[in-house]
Amino acid sequence: PMTDVVVIVSVVILIGLFSMQHYGTDKVSWLFAPIVFVWFILIGVLGAVNIYTYDRSVLKAFNPIYVYHYFKRGKTSWASLGGIMLSITGTEALFADLSYFPVQAIQIAFTTVVFPCLLLQYTGQAAYIATHKDKVSHSFYFSLPERILWPAFVVATAAAIVSSQATISATYSIIKQALAVGCFPRVKIIHTSKKYLGQIYSPDINWILMVLCIAVTAGFKNQSQIANAYGTAVIMVMLVTTFLMIPIMLLVWRSHWALVVLFTVLSLAVEIPYLTAVMKKIDQGGWVPLVFAAAILLIMYVWHYGTLKRYEFEMHSKVSMAWILGLGPSLGLVRVPGIGLVYTELASGVPHIFSHFITNLPAIHSTLVFVCVKYLPVYTVPLDERFLVKRIGPKNFHMFRCVARYGYKDIHKKDDDFEKMLFSSLLLFIRLESMMEEYSDSDEYSALDQQELIDEARSDARSAADLSYASRDSIVPVRSPNRPGAMSSAQTTTATLGFETVGDEVAFLNSCKDAGVVHILGNTVIRARRDSGPLKKLAIDYLYAFLRKICRENSAIFNVPHESLLNVGQVFYV
Q1: Are 285 and 222 in contact (CB under 8 A)?
Q2: Local mean pLDDT, 10-residue blocks, the chain (574 residues)
Q3: Which of 134, 351, 381, 534 is buried most, with the most CB atoms less than 10 Å from its CB?
């Protein structure tokens, strides 16, 4: 049957489209604008020809009085709103396009090309149907001249592929925004373009989306059911957008309350009749987007709840500085050679993972750096501003905090660059700290002198880091004090008593780095309390645990080499 052929062709096109996503849209995006432009000009011209050829009286439809007469007929007119809704589908994609184009460009394209051509085409189809009442189904293709039937079919298919690509790209963008606010499980995000920020690709989401699209296409096999599902999704998008605009107008734009009320009333006056008409077709395919939305909402809510509880646990269980100072320079343990990079989500304070670690292990590295990786909503963070370093406790504790900041286009690579830049930042901080202490009592110390000293210290730190890393080929494992390559007794004494000069501390850090670098990651597992309700146990112990299991681990996100990775687990009950 013809329906089966259409379904098979659609599935093949979908598989091909999703299979090419990893190449990035920048490779073929130069074709998108010409294809869409040709499509709109084609339907606009054909609509104008149909109006002139068949029935020019359809232009009376632009008179608003006919809207009143149409709805005066009764329930049948109201029920037809569900089908009329399909004529404005696609307008919701304008919001997704804001990620790629300026607002003015979208406004110009919509008012000068899209809107006029759609009006001409719909009016032209009405003129054709007025004289061919037996060809309502597929009236667009029936109204085409036979000579351009197949060229128009090819252009229509290409335009459908372009619109599908826009929907796929918009899905990636929404997932990435949800990741940024901690409302979606961690998935891999790849930037496919060096020029355009919004062009991204997520392999995990790509294949899931492909399976769902094929399931809908092959499962329905009915154009009207897919149209009902599409119409339900569009009206829900419009309603959500309207309700989200209210707090934006009040809190962000500071609009007058009367303007907010006027906007809300006018928007709902249009959307609510469409919604009531679409609700009648929920059992005819409209249930699909509602089920998908409910499932995604549940996943986002459970993930956000679990992530928030984990963060609150880390915030409330931070180790106090008084407790650390009470441990002494050795932290109450054996300080073995090496640098320990302790990853944490906290930008301030010492995380609970540290006390959990030293409670269960009898040794800790000679130098500890608490690393907090933050991804900022900016294009890129300059290398000179990427690392913010601060000392924790006295100098002879050898504890630092480092906040590593990355932008959209910055990539945290699995190589020595991260360790090299971090080590260079540590050396720079030590030199600047010494300079600031030296000149802190001088009133004649100008901003220009300060900047010159900073530049000089940065140059010295880079040179020291480059020289140090040039002397080794790879990261070596941490050596215990009894093995070759361990610190000498003099160095250990220096680690305990502190440093008399900056050079002593720099030499100490170099010896620690040569001993090895270990990445320590916390793995906080949350569980529901025994007295929790069944819904909470189901959400935390099963759904959230399942999402944590299938999503990407922190070691993969931070690109930590497995040969120097140490996971520290702890359980937290909520």
Answers
A1: yes
A2: 74 88 75 87 92 89 86 78 74 61 82 90 90 82 86 88 82 80 81 70 89 85 76 86 91 91 92 85 84 91 87 78 76 82 80 78 84 76 84 85 78 63 86 73 50 54 49 34 37 42 79 84 82 87 85 62 72 80
A3: 351
Bridge partner list, 265: none
Check: CB of residue 365 under 8 Å from CB of residue 486: no
Find tokens 């918009």 and name the residue. Answer: 170
Q: Rounded distance, CA 26 to CA 38, Å?
A: 20
Rounded distance, CA 135 to CA 142, Å?
7
Give the range of the structural domain holding residue 505, as residue numbers without chain letter. Answer: 320-438+448-522
- What is the structure's pLDDT at 467? 46
Tell me if 169 is assigned to some domain.
yes
How far apart, in whole angstroms, are the C-alpha atoms of residue 320 and residue 354?
A: 11
Asked if residue 379 is part of any domain, the answer here is: yes
**Domain count of the fold of the chain:** 2
Query: What three-state secondary structure class fits 371?
Result: strand
Distance CA 494, CA 514 (A): 17
549 in a domain, yes or no? Answer: no
15, 140: one domain? yes
> What CA–CA distance (Å, rounded) separates 541 from 487?
46
The residue to which tokens 């320079």 are assigned:
329
Indicate whether 194 and 331 sit together in one domain.
no
542 domain-assigned: no
Answer with the one of 177, 196, 220 that is the final residue of a domain.
220
* Residue 152 near residue 42 (C-beta atoms within 8 A): yes
CA 112 to chain CA centroid, nearest Å: 33
Q: What is the pTM of this model?
A: 0.71
Residue ranges with strand state E in 167-263: 190-191, 200-201
Q: Which of 168, 188, 220 is the last residue of a domain?
A: 220
327 within 8 A of 335, measured Cβ to Cβ: no
